[in-house]
Amino acid sequence: MDMNEEQPHAEDRCILWSDGMQLLKDAAEGKHFLPTGLEGIDTLLGGGLCKGQLTEITGQSSSGKTQVCLYSAAHVAARHMGLVLYLDTSNSFSPSRIAHILDELPISLIKEPKDVRLKRVMSSIICESVFDIFALFEVLDRLEVSLNGKVTNGSNRICLLIIDSVSSLLAPIIGGKNSQGRSMMISVAMILKKLAHKHNLSVLVTNHMVAGNGAPKPALGESWKAVPHIRLMISRDRGSNICTATALKHTLLACGRHMKFQFLPS
């Protein structure tokens, strides 16, 4: 996908107004959410990943954070909801896992041959490797240029931005008394929330956990804690694919609400 497309003409830059009844209808039909494909998480969040907001998935190692990202990318692309930009910071993106997830889609969503569906879905997921903060800034800048140049809301527009994981990029630059690193972290936060709000994206990021006074807690400290609109902690039952998602922060839900969900066997 070329992120540097020709800018639209001034006459094309129209504002699409919606009246109250249309907004109510959209909410009832789940148009303001993107599905993760994991029933427990989608139920807990009232439909899935909220457009215009930043959702953080946190949890300990092997809890399933990357799996949530892969499920979300696969289901959004499979349902013709738009393009997915997947920023992979640790070589964890797995095309074979995407294919496995697609094989288990509900029969009602299977309307094309298996090989055709896989090719279409994979072409709708743009995966970029990003290994440092400067590469992240570059990609986000290109994304902003691309989104500013698009005026349609169809399946050729990016609707979901995934960063797995944001903490692997930010944690190395905020250690000690590095004020410049913290400023860069806040800049990333502001860019992500601006992209989400201005372009009605769902932004999904993952964050690891660190030792605290007692129970482990999400990394990146108090400055980052205020950034996500929604923060979910996921944990996995020992030796199984059954997990629990718990709302640590939400714009509408009470903290502590939780739901069980299950991954397909790898």
Structural class: alpha/beta
The portion of residues assigned to helices is 25-40%
Determine the mean pLDDT.
Answer: 86
The span between the termini is 29 Å
| Rg for CA atoms | 18 Å
Shape: globular
> Uncertain runs with pLDDT below 50, 5 residues or more?
1-18, 22-30
Note the total helix count.
Answer: 9
Please summarize the sheet with the most strands.
8 strands, mixed
Q: What's the total count of β strands?
A: 12
Strand portion: 15-25%
Features:
266 residues; alpha/beta; eight-stranded mixed sheet; two-stranded antiparallel ribbon; 9 helices; 12 strands; 35% helix
Q: Could you explain how this protein is built, in words?
A:
The structure is a single chain. With 266 residues, the chain is α/β, with parallel strands linked by helices. It has nine helices and twelve strands. The protein has helices spanning 20-28, 39-44, 65-78, 95-103, 114-123, 133-148, 167-170, 179-199, 221-225, and strands at residues 33-34, 49-50, 54-58, 83-88, 125-129, 158-164, 202-207, 209-210, 217-218, 230-236, 242-249, 258-262. The strands form three sheets. The protein has an eight-stranded mixed β-sheet, with helices on both faces. It has a two-stranded antiparallel ribbon with strand order 1-2. A two-stranded antiparallel ribbon has the order 8-9. The protein is globular and about 55 Å long.
